[in-house]
Amino acid sequence: MERAGPPDDSAGDLASQLTAAAEAVVATWTQATRTASPRLSALQLEALLIVRRWPGINLTGLAEEVGAAPPAVSRLCDRLEAAGLLRREPAPTSRREIGLVLTLQGNELIDALFARRHEMFAAVLSRMRPAERRQLLSGLLAFARAAARPGGVDADRELPG
């Protein structure tokens, strides 16, 4: 069976090139996180982002989302609560269930992180030609859509386009 496209356009070759190029994107993305105060681990940041996306999520739901055991997530939430970024509150539907919500400080931290990421990406994008920026966006959106399809890495996430 013949492959479509020239030999240097194989999925394996492209995957190697993409992996190398993605390192610059990931480095820019994570550099913004390093400037956050208080400094957060990747898991702490992921937990805050999930709680922001789904205010009122309970510990079990958060544990499923981050792929950790509920006791470990409870300790994680204890630390985030002690830092003033997260609070536990009774769920409106059941007094026995506890939901998680970001505090004002937690929301401000995430807003500042998003602004820093935007600033850093804008600086890099400003060094690219307009056609390259459009190509980059087109390629990344296509990649995101493919990843969101059944069997993709992000099958549960809805993406634009």
Polypeptide structure, described:
By secondary structure, this protein is mainly alpha-helical. The protein has a domain at 38-148: Orthogonal Bundle (Arc Repressor Mutant, subunit A), CATH 1.10.10. Helices cover 61% and strands 9% of the residues. It is built from 6 helices and 2 strands. It has helices spanning 11-34, 42-53, 59-66, 70-82, 104-125, 130-148; strands at residues 86-91, 94-102. A two-stranded antiparallel sheet has the order 1-2. β1 (86-91) and β2 (94-102) form a beta hairpin. The longest helix is centred in the first third of the chain and has 24 residues, at 11-34. The mean pLDDT is 86. This is MarR family transcriptional regulator. It comes from Streptomyces chryseus. Keywords: DNA-binding, Transcription, Transcription regulation.
List keywords for this structure.
mainly alpha, two-stranded antiparallel ribbon, 161 residues, globular, 6 helices, 9% strand, Arc Repressor Mutant, subunit A
Short description:
By secondary structure, the protein is mainly α. It has helices at residues 11-34, 42-53, 59-66, 70-82, 104-125, 130-148, and strands at 86-91, 94-102. The chain has a domain at 38-148: Winged helix-like DNA-binding domain superfamily/Winged helix DNA-binding domain (Arc Repressor Mutant, subunit A).
Helix content: 55-70%
CATH fold name of the domain at 38-148, please? Arc Repressor Mutant, subunit A
Q: What would you give as the CATH superfamily of the domain at 38-148?
A: Winged helix-like DNA-binding domain superfamily/Winged helix DNA-binding domain
What is the CATH C-level name of the domain at 38-148? Answer: Mainly Alpha
Number of extended strands: 2
Task: Tell me which CATH architecture of the domain at 38-148 applies here.
Answer: Orthogonal Bundle
Average pLDDT figure: 86
Sequence of secondary-structure elements: HHHHEEHH
Question: How widely separated are the two ends?
Answer: 32 Å
**Spans of 5+ residues with little confidence (pLDDT < 50)?**
none
Number of helices, counting only DSSP H or I runs of 4 residues or more: 6
Gyration radius, to the nearest Å?
A: 20 Å
The rough form would be described as globular
Keywords: DNA-binding, Transcription, Transcription regulation
Domain HTH marR-type: 11-145
Organism: Streptomyces chryseus
Pfam families: MarR
